[in-house]
Design goal:
Alpha-Beta Plaits, 12 strands, globular, 19 helices, alpha+beta, 3 domains, 6-stranded mixed beta sheet, 500 residues, single chain
Length: 500
């Protein structure tokens, strides 16, 4: 009998987000992809193996493996699942735990830390592994996949929670595992890390955090691009320093972009054959492997970091200036290649905000784009150092308008007070019965905020008409408060562009 297998490994969000440096973020994402690839490749040589997603070509996973993967196979489900799990755990031990452990041992020698390192390094102590297998009917491919999706969701309701008994000082990165009791000064000396670039003076790490931090030094991960810090990204400058910022307390802002396809589960369930599913998987692989990297590189410059790109899911850290354009180009190409829409959340955060919080804000913004603005939308969430938050959201058609508006702010054609004037306008002239008065007042305010010597009619008026039309065409999705926040955001992006 042929079975449709659906596997999922994790934890994903929490594992990736346990990061203090952009390198930790990148390695955490890369590590999960490597483990998933090991599981897929372990079964790919089986005579009856047929990949659904991701695709496998010449013993390579096309486009990288997401944490969720599926295939067809005729063998006993328990044996297949055991082989996949064994391959994942072996890849973790042999590819990550052992090389990093050897590196540390070479630096500091033997000690009690070895026992703790080995215990914490067991895959069973942190890795989540879920799988289901359902009978496959080629004539009802969509139903088979739907059954598998429902089954794995039910399996996750009974997930195993790892009970951690970790005495002593905790890892300063994860806060869960015990910090390894090793000579950190000696380890830094072995790594030639006198400036604390790899390991900071106040860091005491557990096994998982140490594997992320030393994966590159142990040659378990190789990147063809240097991963720059959040300060470098915020300044869009690979040579940026704290001194260049003027103060350690002011580190600039960067954009955290999280994009996700809309209703992908529903779309996959509506694919009627294995061939259709494979074709769609190929489109996702081409998008993730080739196009995402190209677009992020074009807009992220030398410092931007593509953290993760798997199928319809993208996570990137970008300089402010081109973040909106980058998100919009990714969305357009994704829709062109797959026929599906996508939503995105962009968190604009201080460069010194903890990375786990920055990622959380980006995910919250992406969820708001789907739930509050009806999908095929984008939400930008500004988070400032004092705790202030400002949300601007709407359909993707808003982006071109905001980029034009940003250009007017950059050239000082418009005053930065325009957005705050619009907030007051919504309060003073609220309601459909005041629509004509509000339209007149918007033009009066915008003309007043246009720089002296600039022709309002030639330079600004058409853009303001566009603004009014966007709100009035569907004020259930885009309100005047949203528009005011977008205008304030455009000015903020313009200021960031000027600094960069």
């Amino acid at each position: 009998m042929t079975y449709l297998f659906l596997f999922q490994i994790g934890p994903v969000q929490t594992f990736i987000a346990q990061a203090r440096r952009t390198q930790d973020l990148f390695i955490g994402s890369h590590l999960l992809s490597e483990l998933a690839s090991a599981g897929v490749l372990a079964i790919s040589e089986h005579p009856s193996f047929k990949p659904i997603f991701p695709l496998v070509e010449n013993r390579q996973v096309k486009g990288g493996a997401p944490h969720r993967f599926a295939f067809l196979c005729d063998d006993d489900p328990s044996q297949i699942a055991e082989k996949v799990q064994s391959a994942i755990e072996s890849r973790w031990q042999e590819g990550f735990v052992q090389p990093v452990g050897q590196l540390v041992w070479d630096a500091v020698g033997d000690g009690e830390w070895v026992t703790i390192f080995e215990r914490q390094g067991q895959a069973s102590s942190w890795l989540e592994f879920y799988w289901v297998a359902v009978p496959y009917n080629d004539e009802k491919h969509g139903d088979s996949f739907k059954n598998a999706s429902v089954a794995v969701a039910q399996r996750k309701y009974a997930r195993t929670f790892h009970v951690l008994e970790e005495p002593g000082y905790k890892c300063t990165l994860t806060g869960m595992q015990s910090a390894l009791d090793i000579n950190w000064k000696k380890l830094r000396h072995h790594l030639h890390d006198s400036k604390g670039i790899i390991l900071r003076d106040n860091e005491r790490l557990g096994t998982l955090a140490l594997i992320k931090r030393l994966a590159e030094q142990a040659k378990t991960v190789r990147s063809d691009k240097k991963i720059y810090s959040t300060t470098h990204i915020a300044q869009d400058n690979p040579m940026a320093t704290e001194e260049a910022m003027g103060s350690k307390d002011v580190s600039g802002y960067l954009a955290v972009l999280h994009m996700d396809g809309d209703q992908m589960g529903k779309h996959l369930r509506e694919l009627h054959s294995y061939q259709q599913h494979q074709e769609f998987s190929g489109q996702l692989a081409d998008f993730a492997a080739n196009e995402v990297q190209r677009i992020v590189k074009a807009h992220g410059g030398e410092t931007g970091v593509l953290v993760y790109s798997g199928g319809d899911d993208v996570l990137a850290l970008l300089p402010l200036r081109h973040a909106l354009r980058c998100a919009d180009e990714l969305r357009k190409l994704f829709q062109q290649m797959t026929g599906c829409t996508a939503s995105a959340g962009i968190a604009i955060t201080p460069a010194n905000l903890p990375l786990d919080r920055a990622l959380e804000l980006a995910r919250e913004a992406e969820e708001a784009a789907k739930e509050k603005y009806g999908r095929n939308a984008v939400v930008v969430l500004e988070a400032h150092g004092g705790g202030q938050m400002r949300e601007a959201g709407g359909k993707w058609t808003i982006i071109d308008f905001i980029i034009q508006l940003q250009a007017l702010f950059e050239s000082n054609t418009l005053s930065g007070k325009l957005g705050y004037d619009l907030l007051a306008l919504d309060h003073d002239l609220h309601g459909d019965h005041l629509k004509a008065a509000r339209r007149f007042e918007v033009h009066r305010i915008a003309k007043r905020r246009t720089a002296e010597g600039v022709s309002y009619e030639r330079t600004v008026q058409a853009l303001i008409n566009n603004m009014i039309n966007q709100v009035e065409e569907d004020d259930t999705v885009l309100t005047w408060v949203d528009m005011a926040n977008w205008v304030i955001l455009a000015r903020f992006l313009a200021q960031g562009a000027e600094q960069q």
